[in-house]
Amino acid sequence: MMQNRKTRIGYAALVCCLAVGMAYGASNGEKVKVQGMITGRTGESVTIKTTDGSTVTVVLNDDTKVQQPKGLGLRKKQMSATILVPGLKISVDGVGDAQSHVVAKTINFSSDDLEMAEMIQAGLTPTKQAVATNQQNIGEQTGHSNQCPGHRSKPGADCCQQATDC
């Protein structure tokens, strides 16, 4: 039992050392391999959360190949970078840059992971629409209450009615 515990502690220390080495490699121009889930996308950069919980910014450029393995994985289908949406699990091969970002050379993902990410996005679309509608309604209500300064606003009351109620 004691030997098992020492082995686990040894493995944990090794993983920590490798994680520190990987972070160092991302900042000095060496090759980096990162796996994780996309949590955000802005323009030519993708933010991923790795399996160890850290956040990595991946930079895309014209030379970045986005590909999906076909069959046994020997052949790969080239995809557009627009397919990189939040919720997609990816594997990135790239090079670290001076800002501790990873400049991607290749990004791989499975068809199952793509299907899952598309389902996540489909579920988020109605939520985004509801949020936009609520924000518009709040803006309209705020604009209406500003039309009658100095009066207490009652829901559903117009300025004339509010003026007599004050």
User: What is the β-strand count?
Assistant: 7
Please trace the helix and strand order, writing H or E for each element: HEEEEEEEHH
The largest sheet, given as strand count, sense and whether it forms a barrel, is: 5 strands, mixed, barrel
- The multimeric state of the shown protein is single chain
Radius of gyration over C-alpha positions, nearest whole angstrom: 25 Å
In DSSP terms (H or I, runs of 4 or more residues), the helix count works out at 3
Low-confidence runs: 20-25
For CATH, the homologous superfamily is named as Nucleic acid-binding proteins
Shape: extended
CATH topology label: OB fold (Dihydrolipoamide Acetyltransferase, E2P)
What number is the mean pLDDT?
76
Distance between the termini: 79 Å
Helical content class: 40-55%
Strand order of the largest sheet: 1-2-3-7-6
* CATH first level: Mainly Beta
CATH architecture name: Beta Barrel
Q: How many structural domains can be distinguished in the coordinates? A: 1
